[in-house]
Amino acid sequence: MAGEIQVNSVTALTESGSNIVLNNVDTATNRTNLGLGSMATQNANAVAITGGSVSGASIVPDSPFSFRNKIINGSLKSAKVINQRGASSITGATGYTFDRWYYDGSTYLYQGIEDANVENGTYAISWVGSGINAAWKVSTDSTAGNGPDATTGFTSVSNGGTFTVNEVTEFSKHLWIRFDGTLSNLDKVQVERDAVTPFEYRPYGLELILAKRYFEKLGLTYSGHWGGTKGPSAAATIYYDVVKRATPDVDDATSRNAQNNTTATVTAAHITTRKFVYDLNANTGNIGDGIHFYATNGIHVNAEL
Amino acid sequence: MYKLINFLDWQGIHDEINGKTIPFDEANTNYQEYLAWLAEGNEPLPADEPETP
């Protein structure tokens, strides 16, 4: 028929049913002939990208690339471990030692993941170090028996294992992770959603900011003048580096009268999640005396779980 | 031992042993310890009387 060519047989093509398929040509040649390049190959259930770049597409991973680790300060054996309290070791004393880590003084090491960061779902836990056991629990608050002093309600989980948080009200309970065993071996602790991934090294400054939401050690240098007891006098307003999880408790400081060199304790007041005030409310000197506030060992601002 | 603080328009608690001020915030763990201490039947020291003009 005019305008049509009928092909009955061509080398390297095979007729299969009503289709013609390529034959006797290797895959790479086929890809090149089709202009597909070589950076990616697609199989039945996966795409392998071996080079090049992807543009013009919005890619949303199932799990985040960063901020995977819900543990703060998990790189315990690093020279950059955050230790604002100056603890001698992770088990150096009863109470909070390295930032975010609580030691009960004999057996257990805890970290509480704040309720605001605990969504429902599957969690995977991993760490480096032999002779370590782990367990988890959720609790509504930090009252006696619900926080790092809790001894019951924990469920064991193995290194690389998973567990599920499924609360009626999401973001309503803290997630406590507890370790025991050879705690001095513990390192690179990670708790993340869904499945274990390599330990996430966050920038040091960022990790420090995350830790300061719960505890901050401040320096203090303030000079003012005594003005009497009828209102704010010789008052220093101190702002934290980071807004706190809850209204924190704040250490006392010392005031020194520059005229007669007497010292007195000055207590914090007007405490909020953003700042507090040292306000001298008594003075052994005279109106107008120079007043200096200081804290030899720094001021501890504590909003830990 | 604890002592109440009534400083101008702000109220809190002073931990006399550890030297720190504790706010009235139920999310603060040291305030929770104070509540547990109260529940045992203890009473804090009263706040200093404000100086009258």
Can you tell me about this structure?
The complex is a heterodimer of chains A (305) and B (53). With 305 residues, chain A is mainly beta. Chain A has two helices and 23 strands. In chain A, strand 1 (13-16) and strand 2 (19-22) form a beta hairpin. The longest helix of chain A has 9 residues, at 204-212. Chain A is elongated, with a radius of gyration of 31 Å. Chain B is α+β, with helices and mostly antiparallel strands and 53 residues long. The mean pLDDT of chain B is 90. Chain B has one helix and three strands, in the order E-E-E-H. The longest helix of chain B has 11 residues, at 29-39. Classes of the chains: A mainly beta (305), B alpha+beta (53). The A-B interface holds A 141-144, 147, 229-232, 245-252, 265, 267-271, 276, 279, 281, 300, 302-305 and B 5, 7-8, 10, 12, 14-15, 19-33, 35-36, 48, 51, 53. Strand 17 (249-251) of chain A pairs antiparallel with strand 3 (20-23) of chain B, so a sheet runs across the interface.
- Low-pLDDT segments, ≥5 res of chain B: none
Helix content of chain A: under 10%
Write out the strand line-up for the largest beta sheet of chain A, numbering strands in chain order.
5-6-7-12-9-10
Instruction: Report the average pLDDT across residues of chain B.
Output: 90
The helix/strand series of chain B, from N terminus to C terminus, equals EEEH
Instruction: Name the chain pair with the biggest interface and residue counts per chain.
Output: A-B, 31 and 27 residues
Strand content of chain B: 25-35%
Which strand order spans the largest sheet of chain B, edge to edge or round the barrel?
1-2-3
If you average the pLDDT of chain A, what whole number results?
87
Largest sheet of chain B: 3 strands, antiparallel
The end-to-end distance of chain B, rounded to whole angstroms, is 30 Å
Derived structural class of chain B: alpha+beta
Please state the oligomeric state of the protein chains shown. Answer: heterodimer
> How many DSSP H or I helices of chain A?
2
Helix percent of chain B reads: 10-25%
The count of strands of chain A amounts to 23
Shape of chain A: elongated
If you compute it from the alpha carbons, what radius of gyration of chain B comes out, rounded to the nearest whole angstrom?
Answer: 12 Å
Give me the number of helical elements of chain B.
Answer: 1
Please report the distance between the alpha carbons of the first and last residues of chain A: 86 Å
Name the beta content range of chain A. Answer: 25-35%
